[in-house]
């Protein structure tokens, strides 16, 4: 039956996020402007109209770090869902890793890149949720995580699931 309860109508915004690995550790970028300014994170952004999730992830990495990863070297590991008590917007962030890449690392207008040893990842200077799920990704496991946020900072609820490679979550399934 049609419902007049509009509280459950959500608008979904899809993002990508990639963690590039090498012998040096993991590549993070210091966000210089916009959403998440002043925080370290992987590279990524909104998926644009007309592009696939994979294309969006590759484009954002190129724009923000100048690195190129071929599509066959992009490893999809799962997604994180952010719901908010005070907004109908739900963010889906598709997470990738890659350890084969080409081109030289360059600072962009948006991100200042830096390699971190795994033991020296600055979780306290990242989004508050990263410490719950990024270690799983860096152990080469699949990830499904969901967070209920209040405002930009407060975490009301969390659910973090490590997944096997044969059980990587796909949004919408
Ligand atoms: N709570 C959170 N924890 C986390 O680890 N990553 C988050 C996060 N919330 C957002 N992200 C990621 C997703 C995405 O990679 C990035 C935000 O992307 P941006 O807003 O910078 O997108 P765009 O580069 O498309 O921005 P504009 O071009 O300025 O619209 O931060």
TrEMBL record:
Please provide the Gene Ontology terms (biological process) for this protein: DNA protection
What Gene Ontology cellular-component terms does the record carry?
cytoplasm; nucleus
Cellular localisation: Nucleus
Taxonomically, the superkingdom here is Eukaryota
Q: Does the keyword Hydrolase apply?
A: yes
Q: Where is the Nudix hydrolase domain?
A: 9-142
User: Which keywords has UniProt assigned to this entry?
Assistant: Hydrolase, Magnesium, Metal-binding, Nucleus
Keyword Magnesium in record? yes
Annotated EC: 3.6.1.56
What Gene3D superfamilies does this protein map onto? Nucleoside Triphosphate Pyrophosphohydrolase
Q: What is its main location?
A: nucleus
Gene Ontology MF terms: 8-oxo-7,8-dihydroguanosine triphosphate pyrophosphatase activity; dATP diphosphatase activity; metal ion binding
The residues that cross the membrane are: none
Cofactors named for this entry: Mg(2+)
Cross-referenced InterPro entries = 8ODP, NUDIX_hydrolase-like_dom_sf, NUDIX_hydrolase_CS, NUDIX_hydrolase_dom
Q: Which reactions appear under catalytic activity for this entry?
A: 8-oxo-dATP + H2O = 8-oxo-dAMP + diphosphate + H(+); N(6)-methyl-ATP + H2O = N(6)-methyl-AMP + diphosphate + H(+); 2-oxo-ATP + H2O = 2-oxo-AMP + diphosphate + H(+); O(6)-methyl-dGTP + H2O = O(6)-methyl-dGMP + diphosphate + H(+)
Q: Name one Pfam family in it.
A: NUDIX
Assembly information from the UniProt record: Monomer.
Family under the similarity heading: Belongs to the Nudix hydrolase family.
What role does it play? Oxidized purine nucleoside triphosphate hydrolase which is a prominent sanitizer of the oxidized nucleotide pool. Catalyzes the hydrolysis of 2-oxo-dATP (2-hydroxy-dATP) into 2-oxo-dAMP. Also has a significant hydrolase activity toward 2-oxo-ATP, 8-oxo-dGTP and 8-oxo-dATP. Through the hydrolysis of oxidized purine nucleoside triphosphates, prevents their incorporation into DNA and the subsequent transversions A:T to C:G and G:C to T:A. Also catalyzes the hydrolysis of methylated purine nucleoside triphosphate preventing their integration into DNA.
Q: Which PANTHER family match?
A: 7,8-DIHYDRO-8-OXOGUANINE TRIPHOSPHATASE, OXIDIZED PURINE NUCLEOSIDE TRIPHOSPHATE HYDROLASE
- According to UniProt, the name of this protein is Oxidized purine nucleoside triphosphate hydrolase
The organism is Oryctes borbonicus
């Amino acid at each position: 039956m049609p419902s007049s309860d509009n509280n459950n109508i959500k608008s979904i915004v899809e993002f990508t996020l990639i963690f590039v690995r090498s012998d040096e550790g993991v590549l993070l970028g210091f966000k210089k402007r916009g959403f998440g300014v002043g925080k370290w994170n992987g590279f990524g952004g909104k998926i644009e109209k007309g592009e696939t999730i994979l294309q969006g992830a590759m484009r954002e990495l190129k724009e923000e770090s100048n690195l190129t990863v071929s599509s066959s070297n992009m490893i999809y590991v799962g997604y994180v869902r952010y719901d908010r008590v005070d907004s109908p917007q739900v963010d889906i962030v598709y997470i990738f890793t890659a350890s084969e890449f080409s081109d030289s690392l360059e600072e962009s207008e948006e991100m200042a890149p830096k390699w971190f040893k795994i033991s020296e990842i600055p979780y306290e200077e990242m989004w508050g949720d990263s410490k719950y799920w990024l270690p799983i990704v860096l152990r080469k496991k699949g990830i499904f995580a969901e967070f209920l946020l209040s405002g930009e900072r407060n975490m009301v609820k969390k659910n973090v699931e490590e997944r096997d490679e044969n059980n990587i979550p796909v949004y919408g399934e």
